Amino acid sequence: MTDKKLTTASGRPVADDQNSLTAGPRGPVLIEDYILHEKMAHFNRERIPERIVHAKGSGAFGKFTVTHDLTAFTKAKLFSEVGKETKVMVRFSTVGGEKGSADTERDPRGFAVKFYTEDGNWDLVGNNTPVFFIKDAYKFSDFIHTQKRDPKTNCKNAAMMWDFWSLNPESLHQVLIVMTNRGTPYSYRHMHGFSSHTLSFINSKNERFWVKFHFITQQGIKNFTDDEAAEMRGKDPDFAQRDLVEAIEKGDFPRWALKVQVMPEKDADTYEINPFDLTKVWPHADYPLQDLGIMELNQVPSNYFAFVEQAAFAPAHIVDGIGFSPDKMLQGRILSYPDAQRYRLGVNYEQLPVNRCPYAVNNYQRDGSMALGDNGGDAPNYFPNSFDSPAPDPSYAEPPRKLSESMIDRYDRNAPGENDHYTQPGNLFRLLSEEEKRHTIHNIVASMKGITGPRREEIINRQLCHFFRADLTLGTGVARGLEISIDLGRFATV
Questions:
Q1: Which residues are annotated as active site (predicted)?
Q2: What are 241-294's pLDDT values in tens digits?
Q3: Which CA distances in Å does 102 have to 230, 233, 258, 268, 286?
Q4: DSSP symbols for 2-24
């Protein structure tokens, strides 16, 4: 162990660098957690001017059409009646690479949707996977650093990735998904999208429901094998961008069915898993998918920079009838994402055409870089005032939410009851076809063979323990692929 104390930028010693400060073991995160804010704020400013994550992406405009009545669960106006259409802008992306990286890298894919509603813009910001590598935003910058470049060599480093994953077994579920062929989608049109986070619906009776959103591709799932993806990286690193543009321009408009899982608010207290844990899924047998509508992309933006590069998404942007949850990763992103956009595009980024709400926007924000329009003209820039100026509307207030009566502390995110990292990944692997299992093991082995350095054996053995605990066939296949003799007794006790 080192004698060096971890501190904040101002020199304040840090007592816990693993867990956010929460009201009770399941959150929510407190705004007073300055160390979390400092970590995320510094992380958001590490690169200029491209996005830190999701730097390379493709986008298109389209529409969302309501096909089923779910007004019993939400009063959101965009879902108010069957047949109602709402304009959308969607941006797909890879997560870990830079702007010039290849579209077919093994990586999760971002799946961000901006709904231009009459109650403001709603950003549903997710991925093509229903889970993520970590469950607390406190670890987000640490994780992303392992996916970027080695600070010495400026090259990608497999040892960094697998070291982090092996030290954070909560990542196993997402690691396994990314190591299947779903980690290399054929195109953006042939993948699902997920909110991943748990959000909430609020209905006209002010009743709350916990929800997860699923965009189900109507083009069917289609993936590259590892070899095919590597070949395409050499042939056309912009394959997914080109595929999306060409499909829309020839009238082959991609579509997704938006479905939602709905959990009554009280169920969260007694459900067998933490419903706000981003590394877990809700089994469909318990909470089946319910149809909501169809999203269609039918317009290629006329200028990529103006409408895709400058598009800014943030899970903080919700509308009446849709709310947050105690999901610790979501709570961190609520603060972090708008902060990242203000840094990248300026404090007035929501005045840019692609981000501007097409309906009424009234506030007291003034000045700052790139203030567009008349900057509020001669209207007051303070509230309350004696003039005919915007005022709050109490009818939009959310119903109160009871917090845990636990003490405020940095709770271990993987404490007993929150530390089953193996059941869902193991179930996922056993659901794969025999061919998919072979491909997944091949992809893992190919990646782990890139681990080098003095800690290579330690990192590999630690990760093998996780694979064995998830599924014996998975662990055995990876060990054999790495030409490691198998001592099941040793792996079972590590």
A1: 54, 127
A2: 999 999 999 999 999 999 999 999 999 999 999 999 999 999 999 999 999 999
A3: 10, 6, 28, 40, 39
A4: --PPPB-TT-PBPS-SS--EEES
- Check if 223 is active-site: no
Please state, rounded to an integer, the average pLDDT across all residues of the chain: 92
Given 44, 54, 173, 421, the catalytic residue: 54
337 marked as binding residue: yes
Q: Which of 19, 44, 121, 127 is catalytic?
A: 127
Catalytic (active site) residue 54: yes
Could you tell me the CA-to-CA distances from 293 to 68, 283, 362 in Å, in that order?
6, 21, 30
* pTM to 2 decimal places: 0.90
Extents of the domains making up the chain: 23-158+185-357, 423-493
Q: Which residues contact 152 (CB under 8 A, 6 or more apart)?
A: none
CATH number for the region 23-158+185-357 comes to: 2.40.180.10
Classified as helix, coil or strand, 191 is coil
Provide the strand spans (E) within 118-243: 120-127, 193-194, 199-202, 208-217
Both ends of the chain: CA-CA distance in Å? 20
- Helix H or strand E segment including 261: strand 255-264
- DSSP string of 385-444? -SSS-----GGGPPPP-PPP-SPEEE--TTSTTS---SHHHHHHHHHS-HHHHHHHHHHH
Confidence (pLDDT) at 492: 47
